[in-house]
């Protein structure tokens, strides 16, 4: 798995992918921080992380669209599948590499509360939950993008589908489960991926929300493994 992680990180940093992803996410975050914290004289950075996920919808494909689709288009996936490494290690290695790039972005954004500390009292407990919630939400979106990348060998197609699916999930989060059909209401509830961030936004960690995001990450990683294994059998 370590070899896969190093390979993917090398690709990320030897191309503009990692640099563009980190730069855009941090720059947009900095603009939001300046407007809602520095100009507004507020120490609540939760507003920044409540808006950043919408930017992440567009940025997620940048990290995920090539992870599996590129291997298929270049026919290098067969080399990986015949290598002495399990499909699980390949998928988790690719996912971890993408999460490391995302984690670097979050680490840089730690400068926000540090800057605020010079001007006001920062509630570091709430800051921690904001960062934790944003990471879990982002990791969930990345795992979904990884799975979508395994469905096609065209990176552009993977990017468009990923944006469409994530945007749909974000929009569903604004719906109420009042259709009158229990199954449909339950499905809508499961798709409300941003609603689970509300607790983190207010500084409260709900174990149910943590498990929800962890479940999404694991389920879509397993679906990706299944998809690749299916191709391996063929």
**Gyration radius over CA:** 19 Å
Beta-strand fraction estimate: under 5%
What is the domain total for the residues?
Answer: 1
Low-confidence stretches: none
Main β-sheet, in a few words? none
Q: How many strand elements?
A: 0
> How many helices in DSSP terms?
12
Cα separation of the termini: 24 Å
- Based on secondary structure, the structural category is mainly alpha
Give the SSE string: HHHHHHHHHHHH
Helix content: over 70%
The rough form would be described as globular
Mean pLDDT: 84
Task: Kindly describe this structure.
The protein has 234 residues and is mainly alpha-helical. It has one domain (2-233). Helix content is 77%, strand content 0%. The protein contains twelve helices and no strands. It has helices at 2-14, 16-38, 46-64, 69-73, 77-82, 87-108, 111-117, 124-149, 155-172, 182-191, 198-201, 207-233. Helix 1 (2-14) packs across helix 6 (87-108), helix 2 (16-38) packs parallel to helix 6 and helix 3 (46-64) packs antiparallel against helix 9 (155-172). The relative contact order is 0.15. The mean pLDDT is 84.
Layout of strands and helices, then pairs:
Blueprint: H1 2-14, H2 16-38, H3 46-64, H4 69-73, H5 77-82, H6 87-108, H7 111-117, H8 124-149, H9 155-172, H10 182-191, H11 198-201, H12 207-233
Helix pairs in contact: 1-2, 1-6, 2-3, 2-6, 3-8, 3-9, 6-8, 6-12, 8-9, 8-12
């Amino acid at each position: 798995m370590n070899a896969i992680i190093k390979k993917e990180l090398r690709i990320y940093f030897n191309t503009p992918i990692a640099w563009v992803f980190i730069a855009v996410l941090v720059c947009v975050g900095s603009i939001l921080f300046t407007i809602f914290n520095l100009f507004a004289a507020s120490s609540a950075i939760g507003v920044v992380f409540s808006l950043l996920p919408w930017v992440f919808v567009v940025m997620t494909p940048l990290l995920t669209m090539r992870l599996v689709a590129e291997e298929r288009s270049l026919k290098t996936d067969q080399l990986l599948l015949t290598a002495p490494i399990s499909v699980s290690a390949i998928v988790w290695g690719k996912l971890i590499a993408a999460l490391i790039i995302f984690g670097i972005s979050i680490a840089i954004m730690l400068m926000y509360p540090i800057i605020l500390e010079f001007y006001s009292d920062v509630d570091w407990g709430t800051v921690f939950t904001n960062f934790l919630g944003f990471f879990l939400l982002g990791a969930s979106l990345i795992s979904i993008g990884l799975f979508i990348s395994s469905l096609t060998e065209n990176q552009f197609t993977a990017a468009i589908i990923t944006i469409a699916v994530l945007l749909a999930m974000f929009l569903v989060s604004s719906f109420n489960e009042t259709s009158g059909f229990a199954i449909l209401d339950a499905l809508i509830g499961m798709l409300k991926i941003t609603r689970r961030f509300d607790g983190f936004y207010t500084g409260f960690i709900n174990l149910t929300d943590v498990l929800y995001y962890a479940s999404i990450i694991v389920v879509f990683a397993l679906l990706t493994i299944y998809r690749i294994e299916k191709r391996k059998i063929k």
